[in-house]
Amino acid sequence: MEKNNFFVKSHGLGNDYIVLDSDKIDFELTQDLIKKICDVHYGIGSDGILVKYNSDVADFKLRIFNPDGSEAEKSGNGLRIFCKFLYDYGYIDKEEFTVETKGGIVKAKIEEKNRFGKAKIITVDMGKAIFNAKQIPVNTDKEEFMSEKITVGDKEFEVSCVSVGNPHCVIIKENLDEEEIKKYGPMIENHPLFPNRINVQFVKPISRNEAQILIWERGAGFTYASGSSSCGVASVLVKKGLTDREIKIKMIGGELKISIDEDWNIKMTGEVQEICSGYISRELLE
Ligand SMILES: N[C@@H](CCC[C@H](N)C(=O)O)C(=O)O
Q1: Among 257, 254, 264, 180, which Cα is nearest to 222's?
Q2: Could you tell me the distance, in angstroms and rounded to a whole number, from the CA of residue 72 to the centre of ligand 1?
Q3: Which of 85, 123, 258, 282 pairs as cysteine with 269 (C-beta 3.0–4.6 A)?
Q4: C-alpha to C-alpha distance for 82 and 165, rounded to whole angstroms
Q5: Are 132 and 141 in contact (CB under 8 A)?
Q6: Structural domain of residue 241, as residue ranges?
Q7: Which residue stretches, if any, does this entry annotate as coiled coil (predicted)?
């Protein structure tokens, strides 16, 4: 196989990722190189990097890197973008297949194609919502960490934590303020309660089936959308009895449909779009 350092950049609702095939790159993806590739001025620019590997337990294996070089267990937009790449670039001709991630094996389904015959709307079975504090993980003796007050800088927040493969800290608000999440998001992400750091969401429930959210992503910062955040928020809203089990999560970048069954299995459906493809320059790699 030719190692030509081919990449594809796509976005899911403005949350953008670069996809690489581990068999087609001739460089080591170090933390410094990940930071450089994700930087919009010195690299290609993206909210993260997705790398394809072969799997022994699923059709494919995916590793997900944040722009600070850390590795994430799961990513909702990342998974839909990765599945589009696999389908569009002929790695698979079935419309349903499985992907191994650090946060578990997921099932994906291409629901709708665009006028070019490429994948457009994808559903991913994201796995189960986990509320057990140790598994999230949260540094606490409590069994779950729901509706708990924590102090962050000069402010107190009521937080509810959940894992959907990766960890989330959900805060229900009457009004959503971008400046506020940009100020407190990084402090909550790095709070001593969260040994693996955490993704942060501010949520305004709108109805039994809709909520608006703002996102501060672990390792990435303020993003326009996040699939796993949408799943985390929906799980907390259902657990608190604030919404039904079919919920539309609205973000700056667009909407995702989330559905959660009685056993806390989560399904996420939404769009993806390719931005560009190319070859990473030798000059960037040296
Ligand atoms: N954008 C993603 C989440 C990516 C991983 C996250 N930053 C983490 O470290 O857990 C999504 O769409 O889910």
Answers
A1: 180
A2: 7
A3: 123
A4: 17
A5: no
A6: 148-263
A7: none
CA distance 64 to 102: 9
pTM: 0.97
**What token pair was written down for 6?**
């081919």
CB atoms within 10 A of CB 118: 15
Write down the ipTM of this complex. 0.97
Q: Has residue 139 been placed in a domain? A: no
Ligand 1 nearest-atom number relative to CA 167: 10
CATH number, position 237: 3.10.310.10
Residue 137: asked if its preceding bond is cis (omega within 30°), the reply is yes
> Are residue 112 and residue 155 in the same domain, yes or no?
no
In a domain, 280, yes or no: yes
Substitution site in 218, 252, 256, 258 for ligand 1 pocket (most atoms within 8 Å of beta carbon): 218
**If DSSP states are collapsed to H, E and C, what string results for 239-285?**
HCCCCCCEEEEEECCEEEEEEECCCCEEEEEEECEEEEEEECCHHHH
CA distance 272 to 112: 11
Q: Do strands 246-251 and 210-217 pair parallel, antiparallel, or not at all (unpaired)?
A: parallel
- Tell how far the Cα of 74 is from the centroid of ligand 1, in angstroms: 6
**pLDDT value, residue 1:** 77
140: tokens are 């606490």
Residues of the chain with pLDDT under 50: none
Q: CA 117, 119, 123: angle at the middle one, nearest 5?
A: 145
Tokens of residue 274, six digits: 């390719």
Q: How many domains does the chain have?
A: 2
Shortest-distance Cα residue to atom 2 of ligand 1: 75
Pocket flag, ligand 1, residue 270 (CB < 6 Å)? no
Q: Max CA-CA distance within the chain?
A: 55
